[in-house]
Amino acid sequence: MSLYSYEIGATSSTTNLESLAVPTDAPKSTFEAYSVVQQLADGSERTAGWPVATWHWGRMTAAQWAQLKAYVTGKSGTVYIKTRNDAGTYVKYQAIMILPAIPEKIAGRFLDVTVTFKLIEIVA
């Protein structure tokens, strides 16, 4: 049984990160239901835009990094993920996955890897 439900896939048939060819620990995740905060003339704020999520690992092996990069052909691409929403519930989404610049590598491990997911849409 999986310890968590973070999943990723090139299609809507996603795989738990623990079950990938190179098992990967659960990321620290964030989720914002909007991507823009607009300040209004009266001083209040309004939110707009697509949801944005991030997955962050403090460290990962070169094999884990290569496996994650394989989901996109360049800096970004469309993927399917299952991640926590702003209520803490796991939900499956289609999203644009954006890789960071090549992370710092020390002693064979990549440090502070953060992947961003934009244009998130719920998959029925």
Q: If you had to describe this structure to a student in words, what would you say it looks like?
A:
With 124 residues, the chain is mainly β. It has one domain. The protein has one helix at residues 62-69; strands at residues 7-9, 15-16, 28-32, 36-39, 45-48, 52-61, 76-84, 90-98, 104-106, 109-122. Strands 1, 2, 3, 6, 7, 8, 9 and 10 form an eight-stranded antiparallel sheet that branches. Strand 9 and strand 10 (109-122) form a beta hairpin. The protein is globular.
Q: For the report, how would you describe the main beta sheet?
A: 8 strands, antiparallel
Determine the fraction of residues in helical runs and give it as a percent range. Answer: under 10%
Q: Can you tell me the overall shape?
A: globular
How many β-strands, per DSSP?
10
Residue-averaged pLDDT: 93
Secondary-structure element string: EEEEEEHEEEE
User: How much strand?
Assistant: over 45%
**Count of structural domains:** 1
Oligomeric state of this protein: single chain
Pairing-aware structural class of the strands and helices? Answer: mainly beta
Number of helices: 1
Radius of gyration: 15 Å
What is the strand and helix layout of this fold?
Blueprint: E1 7-9, E2 15-16, E3 28-32, E4 36-39, E5 45-48, E6 52-61, H1 62-69, E7 76-84, E8 90-98, E9 104-106, E10 109-122
Antiparallel strand pairs: 1-2, 1-7, 3-6, 4-5, 6-10, 7-8, 8-10, 9-10
